[in-house]
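Tokens for chain A. Residues wanted.
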């Protein structure tokens, strides 16, 4: 028997390499003394009238000229309190009242006013001058909410205050943005002295830095610097070395920016992994002289310090120190003052903590604070292993792979670019200093091959930070496709509540939908006023809010007649069926047209789903809530798509994909199918399905995140036919997003990772295949076929190589791209070939 074979090319995917400066440390440098963090004093909320649990304290600093601690408090009135940095004494025992800065100017006039909070943050220059800022939520309205910065020449109680700046720092910018783009005063950094004093603030959204400079040391002029990575800027801000700044946002890595006042830019310089500086850190302080950074974790309510002499290899300075209490800090606000070896730290609602960095005489050997962690990662992606150490710097690092040293890999991070199967194995690192060495635990890296086919082809993408309404602040969770015109609709809460209409072919912004209701009141209500979006077959747009508890805050559904810029929202009637103690609005699907329009919702914290029938142009909403037996709380909620007939596809991260059936007439519902992880990974969250029910797509939160395309030709056996890696792979801590499929398009919104667009082929073109003999018997043979996953091939046979070939079998390949095919043997000699297509 002869087998004619055809070559099958292996497709490769190239991803951009990850640039990282790796610094080798020499043990021949004079060893630095190991440092630890020692508590000096702390004050519990309630011990003093100006320290509360009412979210009234958000700003603190240290005066480098004398070591005094400074605290902004609004408890009982806005004041700045001055405490002895060594003891925490506020002078009340001697005078009967605590020391505060004077609130009047040289003329005796009270000039501190304006903004949401008249005083919010404070900082001190190297020469001892103090600066404080209000919290201005809309600085472009300089008449009612200007940014105001005040100056005191020193921290003596009799020193008058003077106005250093007041106005709209974004004046002259044509489109400055809205909401948090215009909010300043959550963070303030100060450095220098006299005419060299500089102040730095950032917008709450992270879109802008304000660098304020002076010629006389008293009055300041702002320079606006536009950030290239808004999601990395939040409540933590500190000047770095030279023209740099360190920033910190919740859930994001500590990031250093290069500030360029001439160009008006702030560009990302480096990041410190969240395995070293926790993602829950907000308040930070940095001392360029000692190269130390101090950080408050608002979740664990601790203060930590790090040596950043070599930013590529941060060193934790001892163990974190706890605050006096562990009260909730819902706003995540915190502040740090750092000068030399002294630290003043504030964790809102948890009091003040003062600490000192101490150096022992004898160097400490290295110890590993955070072990390198292995993972299962897809081939073609980048992956980084990192180790965090304690002890006496400097440290030397040597990474090994399968027990063999890796030449040149001598940093605390090991970056592996464009992974291949050859890089699969065991990694470890030896850390050495003058006092000894330590070897990390083994980290096992598994390299997985993604399923690759031509079903999905990249069309365009929008990275986080590329648009003001698309970033890394978890405010983009809803996306839909208008099948009538090919437009893509994005829901964003960045800056303001908005629905952005994009060109589905290019990703270009077309316009935004109107957000004012008929009575000129804005769309509002719920935990999030807007969260998910869907478009019916007739082009009508629906947007839902998010409510954590439908019994206390109503789920709201809005309707736009179309996605034109002239279209305005209409609030649909209340839905009493959803007024239950469950969370609605995390996932939504829409289908149908006219009076047959259906909107599906799932309860994220309950085992339920709802079908809303929207009739009479939105005047009537008929709702029914289904609670199928066996559907437990949390089983569905983040992934939802209509299937064929009266069915839904649904899932939640870490839960199996299920197919749900329902009957609107009887109210009956059931779980039709539940798929184990061996068929559909439980890493899949957001879902989208094609209108004809032929394919289902979902975002899988893996390494890296990826869009998975499932063929539903056999509904009982969803077949993975393609994967597209989402290479930005930024943290999506809520597992949110949306997937939209059209006739020949697929769109994925992975929160904090932007939007990816693909062309979608319903029937994948079959590439060349290979055919080989596996088993042979007198009356049948088993052939091994390898080709394009999801593609169909005809197996043809003939008794002579030049004879007429006839089809013996037709095979559609599974996700593995290979299958065994049994064919009959009817002659002494047979020749077989694989032909693409039906």
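Reply:
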């Amino acid at each position: 028997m002869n087998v004619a074979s055809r070559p099958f090319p292996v497709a490769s995917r190239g991803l951009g390499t990850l640039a990282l400066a790796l610094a080798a440390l020499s043990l021949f440098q004079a060893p630095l003394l190991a440092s630890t963090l020692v508590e000096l004093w702390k004050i519990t909320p309630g011990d003093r009238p100006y320290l509360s649990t009412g979210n009234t304290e958000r700003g603190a600093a240290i005066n480098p000229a004398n070591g005094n601690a400074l605290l902004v408090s609004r408890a009982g009135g806005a004041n700045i309190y001055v405490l002895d940095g060594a003891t925490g004494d506020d002078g009340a025992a001697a005078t009967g009242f605590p020391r505060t800065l004077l609130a009047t100017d040289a003329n005796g006039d009270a000039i501190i006013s304006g903004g949401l909070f008249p005083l919010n943050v404070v900082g001190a220059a190297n020469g001892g001058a103090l600066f404080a800022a209000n919290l201005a939520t809309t600085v472009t309205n300089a008449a009612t909410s200007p940014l105001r910065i005040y100056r005191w020449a020193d921290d003596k109680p009799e020193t008058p205050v003077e106005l250093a700046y007041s106005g709209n720092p974004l004046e002259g910018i044509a489109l400055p943005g809205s909401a948090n783009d215009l909010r300043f005063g959550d963070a303030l950094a100060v450095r220098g002295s006299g005419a060299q004093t500089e102040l730095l603030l950032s917008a709450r959204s992270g879109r802008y830095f304000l660098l304020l400079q002076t010629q006389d040391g008293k009055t300041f002029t702002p320079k606006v610097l536009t950030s290239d990575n808004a999601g990395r800027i939040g409540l933590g801000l500190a000047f770095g070395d030279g023209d740099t700044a360190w920033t910190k946002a919740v859930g994001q890595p500590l990031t250093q920016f290069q500030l360029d006042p001439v160009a008006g830019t702030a560009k990302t310089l480096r990041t410190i992994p969240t395995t070293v500086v926790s993602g829950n850190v907000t308040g930070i302080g940095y001392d360029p002289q000692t190269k130390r950074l101090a950080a408050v974790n608002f979740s664990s309510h601790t203060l930590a310090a790090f040596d950043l002499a070599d930013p590529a290899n941060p060193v934790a300075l001892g163990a974190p120190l706890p605050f006096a209490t562990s009260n909730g800090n819902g706003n995540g606000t915190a502040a740090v003052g750092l000068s030399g070896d002294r630290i003043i730290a504030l964790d809102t609602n948890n009091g003040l903590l003062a600490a000192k960095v101490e150096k022992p005489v004898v160097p400490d050997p290295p110890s590993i604070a955070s072990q390198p962690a292995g993972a299962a990662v897809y081939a073609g992606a980048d992956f980084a292993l990192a180790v965090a150490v304690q002890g006496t710097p400097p440290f030397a690092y040597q990474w090994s792979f399968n027990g063999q040293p890796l030449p040149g890999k001598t940093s605390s991070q090991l970056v592996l670019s464009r992974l291949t199967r050859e890089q699969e194995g065991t990694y470890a690192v030896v850390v050495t200093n003058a006092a000894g060495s330590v070897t990390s635990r083994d980290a096992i890296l598994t390299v997985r091959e993604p399923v690759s086919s031509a079903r999905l082809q990249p069309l365009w993408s929008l990275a986080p930070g590329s648009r003001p309404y698309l970033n890394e602040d978890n405010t983009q969770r809803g996306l839909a496709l208008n099948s009538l015109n090919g437009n893509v609709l994005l829901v964003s809460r960045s800056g303001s509540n908005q629905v952005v209409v994009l060109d589905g072919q290019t990703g270009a912004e077309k316009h935004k939908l109107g957000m004012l209701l008929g009575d000129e009141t804005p769309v509002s209500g719920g935990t999030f006023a807007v969260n998910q979006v869907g478009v019916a077959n007739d082009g009508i747009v629906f947007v839902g809010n998010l409510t954590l508890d439908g019994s206390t805050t109503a789920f709201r559904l809005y309707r736009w007649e179309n996605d034109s810029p002239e279209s305005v929202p209409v609030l649909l009637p209340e839905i009493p069926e959803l007024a239950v103690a469950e969370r609605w609005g995390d996932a939504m699907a829409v289908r149908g047209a006219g009076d047959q329009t259906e909107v599906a919702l799932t309860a994220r914290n309950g085992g339920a789903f709802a079908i809303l029938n929207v009739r009479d142009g939105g005047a009537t909403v008929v709702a029914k809530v289904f609670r199928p037996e066996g559907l437990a709380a949390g089983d569905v909620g983040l992934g939802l798509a209509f299937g064929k007939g009266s069915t839904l596809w649904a899932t939640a991260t870490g839960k199996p994909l299920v197919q749900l059936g329902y009957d609107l007439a009887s109210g009956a519902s059931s779980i039709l199918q539940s798929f184990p992880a061996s068929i559909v990974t439980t890493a899949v969250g957001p879902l989208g399905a094609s209108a004809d029910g032929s394919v289902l797509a979902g975002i899988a939160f893996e390494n890296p995140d990826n869009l998975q395309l499932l063929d539903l030709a056999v509904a009982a056996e969803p077949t993975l036919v393609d994967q597209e890696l989402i290479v930005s792979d930024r943290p999506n801590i809520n597992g949110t997003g949306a997937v939209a499929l059209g006739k020949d398009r697929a769109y994925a919104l992975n929160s904090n990772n932007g939007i990816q667009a693909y062309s979608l082929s319903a029937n994948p073109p079959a590439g060349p295949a290979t055919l080989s003999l596996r088993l042979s018997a007198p009356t049948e043979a088993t052939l091994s076929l390898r080709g394009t996953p999801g593609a169909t091939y005809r197996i043809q046979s003939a008794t002579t190589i030049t004879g007429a070939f006839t089809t013996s079998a037709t095979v559609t390949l599974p996700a593995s791209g290979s299958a065994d095919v049994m064919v009959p043997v009817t002659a002494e000699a047979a020749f077989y070939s694989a032909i693409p297509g039906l």
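The longest strand covers residues 425-433. The helical segments are 92-95.
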